[in-house]
Amino acid sequence: MNIEVLFALILGLLVGSFLNVVIYRLPVMMENDWTQFSKEHLGLIQENDPQPEKFNLMTPPSRCGNCGSPVRPWQNMPIISWLILRGKCASCHTPISIRYPLVELLTGLLFALVAWQYGWSPITVWGCLFTAFVIALTFIDADTQYLPDQLTMPLIWLGFLFNWHTGFISLEQAMLGAVVGYMSLWILSNAYKLWRGVDGMGGGDFKLLAAVGAWTGLQNLAVIVLMAACVGIVAGLIKRVAKQQPMAFGPCLAIAGWIVFVWHDKVLYGVNWWLHKSGF
Ligand SMILES: [Zn+2]
């Protein structure tokens, strides 16, 4: 194995551990903010109300959801700790979800894939950052149907910086990708709203497609949306069997965007081949 792939794998395991915190805490932080904002807006806050308990990505430190005992540093090692603890809290033996080590493993593997594809290069460093955002957004949207602005908006600006720094695609492609990505879903969603009178898609999806466009360019946008629709249909069929639930489109967009980012050249080659073959 190349040294950079191994390095990316280990970095990914550590970043995955942090992503678990983001995935769990960010939606709670958003809801706390909305509650606080609504109370202020409606004049429901008294002068001597107690300050809400501080809750962000750093405080309070991680602790068991059942007994509240703190997670010690040695219990915080990606995957290994979960295996040593056999998936149970050290104090009260409540099971710890297998999702935590799985998110760590997934992050490690995807970072390794990026490093394997792009080698020891700035694109790999940026690509790992993109991967981390995509994983956080995918799980948060699947859990809560939110795509937090705190993640989608920076991802748009980071996409421009990435292409400006590495020349992965031209800045023109990145700019058009972001604009067309946002506008196409915005128009589609508003047309649907006029027609059916209900929201078909969340505003977070527009921002996410804008971000994916900023990273991968206008040239890849159609393929990404098509791929996302396919992922959505497959996931929808599986879910429909399981239980009736609204589908989040965000994860499909994120996954399709990531695939196109990593296999950028092959996807473009495939599209050109298909267009040529179809006589366009
Ligand atoms: Zn416990």
UniProtKB/TrEMBL annotation:
<dbReference type="InterPro" id="IPR000045">
    <property type="entry name" value="Prepilin_IV_endopep_pep"/>
</dbReference>
<dbReference type="GO" id="GO:0004190">
    <property type="term" value="F:aspartic-type endopeptidase activity"/>
</dbReference>
<dbReference type="InterPro" id="IPR050882">
    <property type="entry name" value="Prepilin_peptidase/N-MTase"/>
</dbReference>
<feature type="domain" description="Prepilin peptidase A24 N-terminal">
    <location>
        <begin position="10"/>
        <end position="118"/>
    </location>
</feature>
<keyword id="KW-0378">Hydrolase</keyword>
<dbReference type="GO" id="GO:0032259">
    <property type="term" value="P:methylation"/>
</dbReference>
<keyword id="KW-0489">Methyltransferase</keyword>
<feature type="domain" description="Prepilin type IV endopeptidase peptidase">
    <location>
        <begin position="128"/>
        <end position="236"/>
    </location>
</feature>
<dbReference type="InterPro" id="IPR010627">
    <property type="entry name" value="Prepilin_pept_A24_N"/>
</dbReference>
<keyword id="KW-0645">Protease</keyword>
<comment type="function">
    <text>Plays an essential role in type IV pili and type II pseudopili formation by proteolytically removing the leader sequence from substrate proteins and subsequently monomethylating the alpha-amino group of the newly exposed N-terminal phenylalanine.</text>
</comment>
<feature type="transmembrane region" description="Helical">
    <location>
        <begin position="155"/>
        <end position="188"/>
    </location>
</feature>
<keyword id="KW-0997">Cell inner membrane</keyword>
<feature type="transmembrane region" description="Helical">
    <location>
        <begin position="247"/>
        <end position="264"/>
    </location>
</feature>
<feature type="transmembrane region" description="Helical">
    <location>
        <begin position="6"/>
        <end position="26"/>
    </location>
</feature>
<dbReference type="GO" id="GO:0005886">
    <property type="term" value="C:plasma membrane"/>
</dbReference>
<keyword id="KW-1003">Cell membrane</keyword>
<dbReference type="Pfam" id="PF01478">
    <property type="entry name" value="Peptidase_A24"/>
</dbReference>
<dbReference type="GO" id="GO:0006465">
    <property type="term" value="P:signal peptide processing"/>
</dbReference>
<dbReference type="InterPro" id="IPR014032">
    <property type="entry name" value="Peptidase_A24A_bac"/>
</dbReference>
<dbReference type="GO" id="GO:0008168">
    <property type="term" value="F:methyltransferase activity"/>
</dbReference>
<keyword id="KW-1133">Transmembrane helix</keyword>
<keyword id="KW-0511">Multifunctional enzyme</keyword>
<feature type="transmembrane region" description="Helical">
    <location>
        <begin position="124"/>
        <end position="143"/>
    </location>
</feature>
<keyword id="KW-0812">Transmembrane</keyword>
<keyword id="KW-0472">Membrane</keyword>
<keyword id="KW-0808">Transferase</keyword>
<comment type="similarity">
    <text>Belongs to the peptidase A24 family.</text>
</comment>
<feature type="transmembrane region" description="Helical">
    <location>
        <begin position="208"/>
        <end position="235"/>
    </location>
</feature>
<protein>
    <recommendedName>
        <fullName>Prepilin leader peptidase/N-methyltransferase</fullName>
        <ecNumber>2.1.1.-</ecNumber>
        <ecNumber>3.4.23.43</ecNumber>
    </recommendedName>
</protein>
<dbReference type="Pfam" id="PF06750">
    <property type="entry name" value="A24_N_bact"/>
</dbReference>
